[in-house]
Specification:
The chain is α+β, with helices and mostly antiparallel strands. The protein contains 4 helices and 6 strands. Helix content is 17%, strand content 18%. The strands form 2 sheets. The chain has a 3-stranded antiparallel beta sheet with strand order 1-5-6, with helices on one face. It has a 3-stranded antiparallel beta sheet with strand order 2-3-4. The protein is elongated. The protein starts with a helix and ends with a helix. The C terminus is likely disordered.
Amino acid sequence: GVLLEVGAKKLGWRALPAPMAIASRPYKGREACHNCGFCWYFPCEWGAKSGTNFTMVPEALASGRCELRSECKARLVETDDRGRVTGVVYFDGDRREVRQRARAVFLCANGGETPRLLLMSKSNRFQDGLANSSGMVGKHLMFNGNTGAGAEFEHEVNGYKSAQSHLNHILTKKSSKRKRQLGAMNQIAECDVPAVRKMLPYT
């Protein structure tokens, strides 16, 4: 992140390291970060990245009050005549339809699958789907845009060392009138430039 900070200063920006959820020391049976550099797009073999697969899920299973059913796909949420949730209908790994009764159901399937489940959960009482009295479920979906840039350096940047998430910064643009924050996610990686030139036809 040093090169990023230097470049930001030349542009009149101030680079601030963003908070991470990577363990810097052993914590609850998980190892500290080994600084191997394989953070983005890879699972952490040490468990240092605080994903739910290393934190919440193991603790829930260890409580004895949670069961993890993998390779299942939810089909709809069922309700009774009063409009109260009674459970979920899903397909298991063998494509068999299963009904799981429940007093409460939490939908955590992101911005695409959660509305889809709500819309598929139609009934006589909820003819437009669950939680859709406004008719807005599944509409006005907003995406997070991003941009990218590449650069060559005349010296080693050692981008493969340490957690690459360290290179996430919040860039603050200094202005005479006001400060403007620009969210930025940056990664400095090192590669064999001559080899890359051979692969790319436009270099």
